[in-house]
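job 3f2a | input accepted
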Amino acid sequence: MKRDEWIAVLDFGSQYAQLIARRVRELNVYSEIIRCNTPAAEIKKRAPKGIIMSGGPASVYAPGAPQCDREILNLGIPTLGLCYGMQIGCTCLGCKVTPAEAREYGRREIEIVEEEPLFKDLGKKLTVWMSHGDQVRDAHDDLITLASTPTCTHAAVRHKSVPFYGLQFHPEVTHTPRGMEVMRNFLYGVCGCKGTWKMSSFVEETVRRIRERVGDKKVVLGLSGGVDSSVVACLLQKAVGEQLECIFVDNGLLRRGEFQQVVRDFHDNYHAKLHAVDASKRFLDALEGVEDPEKKRKIIGALFIEVFKETAEKIKDARFLAQGTIYPDVIESSSPVGGPSATIKSHHNVGGLPEQLGFELIEPMRELFKDEVRRLGEELGMKHEQIWRHPIPGPGLAIRCLGAVTKEKLAILREADYILIEELRKSGWYDRVAQAFAVILPVKSVGVMGDERTYEHVIALRVIDTVDFMTADFSRLPHELLGGISSRIINEVRGVNRVVYDISTKPPSTICWE
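job 3f2a | predicted structure (514 res):
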């Protein structure tokens, strides 16, 4: 990427490290996440305009807590520490961090006592999002306090001689309403950035790098028809043209009409080389009786690789494997830079590829969020309905069919899901929400139909609002719309007598049920 202007984000194990990088890119400055223990000499060589130290789940004084090269603060590069990043930076500068007498979680109001460039034009009070149990205690005379709360004396600090700023709150999250202005002030007011990076820059540079790497060899892509794989297919087609060959595996876990739609979009409309493989029986046989969601994911992932490999081996000169992996996939599977981030669930297109597959991996969107992927699709000139189609995870309906997967339950789920989407489209709500889908629960309930007792399946509806899919809230659909959807599902889908609506948020829940 363009190296004339970039920001290094040091990852100390925060679930929000990539969110920080994304916020920086939204402000038209390129950013990369690097290991928190990257040597200062290496950072100096790459000459970033600024450094941001992320938060993290540890306490700086705990044994084994993530550390950084203390010489980073002597490079003369403006550095901003966020939460844990502030605490580790202050520790490196000789301050002491201890457990707070009063922990701060959620929205707080800080009082700005020194405007400085960081809080320029933000007034005297600011609502921020706190999430910490430790605080900087012994802030010596070299630290200037910029902001405080009644229970946190040093909510924001600046060092007198070292270009280090620390914020005990999180400006990167949407819960800090003016957080982007704080980030902008750091990037432009402190670091002196000009804002030269755009999505068009990403396309241009990524296409160049793919061409240089691929040469005259072929690239194979596992195409699902979802937003991520569709966008990466168009990106690769722009980069290598007919050297791209797509493999679409029908695993029997697709949404209604999905197979036909993928073939129509990519073979008929985009004229891509598409190998469509019907392996539905193999997948359903392998999943028979399996209830544990992680086992389902691993079975589907392993079998996908097996089927994919069988097809790819027939493609001459195929050397590279491309995937539509994006950052939420990566961060839920493992830390993208080897840090201590927790694993939430496995994704079959993240890691786990056996060495004997014989391909070199290309993941050009690995550090992009979903909304950035859609912006990329727009930059590539893709159709609106492709870019804004609601996503579905790699395991498909298997993880929306709770408990054991059966043909009967899948058939019920497909019809319920189709009705949900159809009604959202008709009402104008489809493009107003980020994702909507039906889930068939592993329980049955008693009902009454035609004066007779029924004992049938329960369908849960999940409709969410989110920007980056790292956090999400349930959509406040009109009750009349929900009632209409419920009525249609119960009346039109045989085997269902109850519909419920999921009103949980992420976190603590995940978006998918499994």
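job 3f2a | The chain has three domains: 6-190, 199-387, 400-501.
job 3f2a | closed
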